[in-house]
Amino acid sequence: MASDVQRIVGALSHVEREAAKLPWAKERPWRASSQVSILEGVPTVDLHGLSIRLGEAVAQALLPMVPELDAAALQFITGRGRHTGGISRLKEAVNLHVLAAARENGWTASPRGPGRILVVSDPSKAPTAATGGFPVYFWLFIAFILFAIAAIVYDKLF
């Protein structure tokens, strides 16, 4: 997963340079190294502090990389638009790119809360948090409980 972060950060160097020119960059600089992380096993890019144009540039740069990522998934944090009257134009613009890429490539795209969108190119490679499945340890726990119940029932019968 660390390699996913490094690849994403590297792919966003041009966006970082452009973000340094934004009017608010001195107070709130946007740096790929601090805006890209892993959340629940999924590479995540926080777009807070970017203009709509730069948010779209991030989506355009990263969406082609999704199938190559170890996680086969990517999440964008766009925000809800609390500072712009409840309407996030950044969210709308980025979501359009994500949904178009998902439709064109047969991927899944889904909202993850009011200001996030997740795209998955290959559910078999994606973390369970991205696919909605249960992790292996959950099924091991269930198997343990069922075994314990069976042992108790067997003990009472025989």
Describe this structure in words.
It contains 7 helices and 5 strands, in the order αααββαβαββαα. The chain has one domain (2-132): Ribosomal Protein S8, Chain: A, domain 1 (2-Layer Sandwich), CATH 3.30.1370. By secondary structure, it is an alpha+beta fold. It has helices at 2-11, 13-19, 32-35, 52-62, 89-105, 128-131, 136-157, and strands at residues 36-39, 42-46, 73-77, 108-111, 116-120. It has a 5-stranded mixed sheet.
**Would you give the CATH topology?**
Ribosomal Protein S8, Chain: A, domain 1
- N-to-C terminal Cα separation, in Å? 51 Å
- Give me the CATH architecture, please: 2-Layer Sandwich
Count of alpha/pi helices: 7
Main beta sheet: 5 strands, mixed
Number of domains: 1
User: What value does the Rg take, in angstroms?
Assistant: 20 Å
Which runs of at least 5 residues are low in confidence (pLDDT < 50)? none
Mean pLDDT: 86
User: Helix proportion of residues, in percent?
Assistant: 40-55%
Strand ordering within the main sheet: 1-2-3-5-4
Envelope shape: elongated
CATH class: Alpha Beta
Total E-strand runs: 5
Give me the secondary-structure category.
alpha+beta
